[in-house]
Write a structure and sequence with these properties.
The complex is a heterotrimer of chains A (298), B (252) and C (358). With 298 residues, chain A is mainly alpha-helical. Chain A is built from 13 helices and no strands. Chain B is an alpha/beta fold. Chain B folds into two domains: 1-77 and 168-252, Rossmann fold (3-Layer(aba) Sandwich); 89-167, no CATH class. Classes of the chains: A mainly alpha (298), B alpha/beta (252), C mainly alpha (358).
Chain lengths: 298, 252, 358
Amino acid sequence: MQFFFEVLIGGLLAGVMYSLVALGFVLIYKASGVFNFAQGAMVFFAALTFVGLQEKTGLPFWIVLALTLAVMILLGVLTERIVLRPLVNQPQITLFMATIGLSFLLEGLSQLIWGSDVRRLDLGLQDEPIQVVMDRFGILISKFDLAAAAVAGVLVGVLAVFFNKTRIGRALRAVADDHQAALAVGIPLQQIWSIVWSVAGFVALVAGLLWGARNGVQFALTFVALKALPVLILGGFESILGAIVGGLIIGAAEKLAEVYLGPLVGGGIEGWFAYMLALLFLLVRPEGLFGEKRIDRV
Amino acid sequence: MLSVDNISLAFGGVKALTDISFDVREHEIRAIIGPNGAGKSSMLNCINGVYSPQRGTIRIGTETFRQMDPNKAARMGIARTFQNIALFKGMSVLDNLMTGRNLKMNCGLLAQALYLGPNRREEIEHREKVEHIIDFLQIESVRKTPVARLPYGIQKRVELGRALAAEPRLLLLDEPMAGMNIEEKQDMCRFILDVNDEFGTTIVLIEHDMGVVMDISDRVVVLDYGKKIGDGTPDDVRNNQAVIDAYLGVAH
Amino acid sequence: MFYREAGQFKTSYAADQQLFPIRQDRIAMLALLVLAVAVVPLIASNYVLTAILLPFLVFALAALGLNILTGYAGQLSLGTAAFMAVGAVAAYNFQLRIPGMPVLGSFVLGGLTAALVGIGFGLPSLRIKGFYLAVATLAAQFFIPWLLVKVSWFSNNSSSGVISAQPVVILGFAFDSPVRKYLLVLAIVALMALAAKNLVRSSIGRAWMAVRDMDVAAEVIGIRIMRTKLIAFAVSSFYCGVAGALYASVYLGSVEADGFNLDLSFRILFMVIIGGVGSILGSFLGAAFITLMPIALDRLLPWAAELLNLNLPAGVTSMVQLVVFGALIILFLIVEPHGLARLWQIGKEKLRLWPFPY
């Protein structure tokens, strides 16, 4: 039983990381109706840029963080300028494919600039069990994971306030609903998109740092980031809450499956389990846990 | 040939239709009118199965249905057009009309992949039928143009053509003249009357232009807030107090 | 001037519905076929045949398959490589385990197996659209290669899941040299391309496009959406399956299931986007482009580096490739969403007037 809980909690905490990546997807989807396949590449790009800058300049953590953030904001603005603006009012699927192109571009670019070696990233957090919990319940919980969860929690809170309480947030939602209508009432579409892509870049940076510190900064990161897709299917594309809950479910289910189901089929099921879970889920509830059901008007 | 009995439809808590009944006779032009949001389009959507009403039945010919589905409706000879044009934008006019005849084509996948022989014969045979409709609607010059490039009025005409290509017994037209100018409306009226005359097709249409409705329809149903408030010949309806109230408003 | 259809009147619907209604197109197509069948084998070196033409043809077939699903039926798939893997492994096993199985028969059976699997993974498309479906196809992409590696029966218990093709012998004739392999693949691909063209101009093709453009209207005129989508998945997967079988047994000779990865799926998707979504010709143009580009980069980069006196670290070409692919995709989507095929068409329209534009 203890072992079960350990696996479960480990899975949930890993799920937090998925949630973080998924959060970036949801942000952009809500605000621009774009399904940003490049979010994973952005996570990789952010982490690699951070590590690269740290190595090259040797500056202290916070300054490098600020520099990287500046790079991500620049990236967001450029993306809006070069990729999205010419594609306004194109079918969603076209925008989706454009972001696939963007993800290739980012993956290639970041490795061209910083090289393709695996890097270590040190945030000063130790990946060691919390002693108190260990002694009291005999369950192993990593300090690092817990800290990551806390960061994710704070981030979600801030974003929720941003979306629901500020004027920019309202404009964002209007834009997501209908580009043309939003333009017609005088919402500066371009500005809004730049902002939201920058925010998504910031989320990607946070996710990239946490993931990178845990597993090393390497190309495989983009595959981990892809796992955010089944998370979104579970949670619904438009719900921040959905991204969080979906991430937790996927993280936990994946770990439990790997431990209990994996040995039966020869292991290695982490690569696809999340996707198959999402696929089965789709058959039952296509709009996701928190997505809105749409009625087509004809 | 068609009758709807006690149809009620709700979306969540919103009642779109409440207890509607009316009938359509063979070979007549039946109009459904009413203010915006009265449930006219919903009514058509129930008849050909796009929406499923919660209560009530639909009788077509001698068969009675609790609810239709769009495919079954098509197979029973019901065709329709949409309020906002629902053409296949990436295809040419000809292909749009040919698609209207898909139900009548039975070549298997392999025959289609080979094309020669039975499939070619079938394609040509249906092409001839479709060309008749193209002639009838006077859209010969645009037959190979992708529909997305055509002006609105012509698109409406193509959509009518696609419905006609299926050789329907019953034709449902959802605001066939919306957004047209006088000449286009006159053309469209002529087409509708000709279809009714030449092919003997029964027609149910929704229209806002009262002049048109009173001129071409045999009988009229009036809906308001999802309820039926009038039913009869154009003259009956014109003099019905409830209808006048709905359209002109009542002094409070 | 030279490319004009003026004066070529059609007097029957049959004449109007033929594959190439314009005479010049017929002549050009014939010339191309003669070139491909008679001239290329004489002049092309083994390098050109095996490193350029064979992969080009195989990828064109896979792109054709994806284009049927994505371009014509409007269902985005990110799992093309998985269906290729199914075709490759199935064809291999049919050859291995059924004595006297003809090679072409095993290709067909491999394609059919892929079609069955395709239908299975196409089932969710009945309830979901767009991105949701794309994610669902990712499930196929990650699950199928894993399964093919894990169950060692599929690769006849070879240690790393590698399947090695038997020699391709048809009716006692061995297709062992590059020229022979090329001709075999050319014949298969040409026939299947013709079949695809026929499908998309028949009722099933119109049904696919109808479902793609406006599914409610399609349903209302009596098209069974479920059936239409599943047929699209089946036909598409069949093409990908055959392409996979050719990829494994004719082009590479031996391949492991892990080689059919997400990267390959994307590569084929790029062929479709760059070549032209919803165009048979585009599948070929896109395949040619994506096959040639890395080769061109390989040649150009060292040359450019030498010119600028730069020192190229190893692995840079593959990075540059990623960047160029990504940039091209974005560029094409912005400038010409219908890809090379549309550019070709525009070129032809210009050609009607050339060289006298007035």
